[in-house]
Amino acid sequence: QVQLVESGGGLVQAGVSLRLSCAASGRTFITYAMGWFRQAPGKDRMFVAAIDRRGSNTFYEDSVKCRFTISRDNAKNTVYLQMNSLNSEDTAVYYCAAQVAYGQSMYTRSYDYDYWGQGTQVTVSS
Fold first, then answer.
1. Which residues pair with 34 in a beta bridge?
2. How many helices (H) and strands (E) are present in the chain, helices listed first?
3. Cα 115 to the chain's mean position, in Å?
4. What is the pLDDT of residues 68-105, one digit of tens each?
5. Closest by Cα among 7, 61, 72, 53 to 37
6. For 54, which DSSP code?
7. 25, 63, 79, 86: most buried by Cβ count inside 10 Å?
8. What is the spatial distance between Cα 22 and Cα 39, in angstroms, rounded to a whole number?
């Protein structure tokens, strides 16, 4: 198993940047493809970004594609989500997720992931 702990959330003003981190412990981090999801109040958990095991490939939800960057440091067992030009629609609890993967596989559906962090709140004030 792998345990995931997110950090870096907070209350920020529109237009600023924020970087979320997700630290993993347990089995070998490079075994896992990673993803970020978010859940706004009253809404379903939605895909944000995904990255393959080695960080060679990434994929984004359309609304964040030009503003957010997912990356990972396998030496530090950590995946990041750099968020730029934040707006009020980015307000949500952000979750990282992990799934054992092979090759360059990535996953965009929440039910593809077996392991989840507890989430970190991001609130963007306009």
1. 51, 98
2. 0, 11
3. 12
4. 999 999 999 999 999 999 999 999 999 999 999 999 99
5. 61
6. T
7. 79
8. 16
Distance CA(14)–CA(12), nearest Å, equals 7
DSSP state of 109: S
- Per-residue model confidence as pLDDT tens digits over 13-62: 999 999 999 999 976 899 999 999 999 999 999 999 999 999 999 999 99
CA distance linking residue 47 with residue 37, whole number of Å: 4
Q: What is the rounded distance in angstroms from the CA atom of residue 80 to the CA atom of residue 96?
A: 9
Write the Ramachandran bin of 30: left for phi over 0, alpha for psi from -120 to 50, otherwise beta. Answer: alpha
25, with CB counted inside 10 A (0-12, 13-18, 19+), is exposed
